[in-house]
Amino acid sequence: GAVVSQHPSRVICKSGTSVKIECRSLDFQATTMFWYRQFPKQSLMLMATSNEGSKATYEQGVEKDKFLINHASLTLSTLTVTSAHPEDSSFYICSANHRGLGETQYFGPGTRLLVL
Amino acid sequence: GDSVTQMEGPVTLSEEAFLTINCTYTATGYPSLFWYVQYPGEGLQLLLKATKADDKGSNKGFEATYRKETTSFHLEKGSVQVSDSAVYFCALSSLDSNYQLIWGAGTKLIIKP
């Protein structure tokens, strides 16, 4: 149990376009979902915390108008990278809190974004 | 604030060697401690966890014991395999941090046959 999926796993887009990444908890309800960004050879950087039915809480330095997060249900959160630029190319990972297990976070497989 | 420090990598070992990756933490409350693993080209997976002092988490031959007196959660494995090559992240979370994970920098492990 406690499986989190992300879609797509890999996306290539042109500069200036928007890209939507979905994060789903497949077999549990997630009260909170987190979005991370991982740069090559570096640790994870928390971008935002997404609570179902409320606005996301963004970390300092993360542009909320550029990285739109919508947590529409207890099993789905989406991250939209608006007007993507090459510097947005990265590995984006989501995680979800398993409500029944308290603080344990389960991670999706990640989405590789390449902006040309 | 809360923080996690883990040994810098890469750590290079031969197959069947004993592994220790050190992890220490600072926290104001009573955190839960985690080890996550990221295999090449893949996302993060929870490897093991411990939620209170003296708990031992174990999985896939890996173990880590929550030591409150030394604020440590060192990862160990008695005999590593090539397939264990990955990046290992130590992390903590607590109610005080609203269950956000506080991450170590990650340690890359390379196992040579």
Task: Give your account of this protein's structure.
By secondary structure, chain A is an all-beta fold. In chain A, 0% of the residues lie in helices and 55% in strands. In chain A, strands 2, 4, 5, 6, 9, 10 and 11 form a seven-stranded mixed sheet that branches. Chain A has a four-stranded antiparallel sheet with strand order 1-3-8-7, with no helix packed on it. The mean pLDDT of chain A is 88. Chain B has 113 residues and is mostly beta strands. Chain B is built from no helices and twelve strands. In chain B, strands 2, 5, 6, 10, 11 and 12 form a six-stranded mixed sheet that branches. Chain B has a four-stranded antiparallel sheet with strand order 3-9-8-7, with no helix packed on it. In chain B, strand 5 and strand 6 form a beta hairpin. The termini of chain B are far apart. The model of chain B has no long low-confidence stretch (mean pLDDT 91). Classes of the chains: A mainly beta (116), B mainly beta (113). Chains A and B meet through strand 5, strand 9 and strand 10 of A and strand 5 and strand 6 of B.
Write the layout of secondary structure elements.
The complex is a heterodimer of chains A (116) and B (113).
Chain A lengths: L3 E4 L2 E4 L5 E7 L4 E9 L5 E8 L5 E2 L8 E7 L2 E6 L8 E9 L6 E3 L3 E5 L1
Parallel strand pairs in A: 2-11
Antiparallel strand pairs in A: 1-3, 3-8, 4-5, 4-9, 5-6, 7-8, 9-10, 9-11
Chain B lengths: L2 E4 L4 E4 L4 E3 L1 E4 L5 E7 L5 E7 L5 E4 L2 E4 L9 E3 L8 E8 L8 E2 L3 E6 L1
Parallel strand pairs in B: 2-12
Antiparallel strand pairs in B: 1-4, 3-9, 5-6, 5-10, 7-8, 8-9, 10-11, 10-12
Q: Please give the radius of gyration of chain B in angstroms.
A: 13 Å
Structural class estimated from helices and strands of chain A: mainly beta
Question: Ends of chain B: how far apart?
Answer: 41 Å
Greatest interface and its participating residue counts: A-B, 20 and 21 residues
User: How many β-strand stretches of chain A?
Assistant: 11
Helix content of chain A: under 10%
The proportion of strand residues of chain B reads over 45%
The topology string of helices and strands of chain B comes to EEEEEEEEEEEE
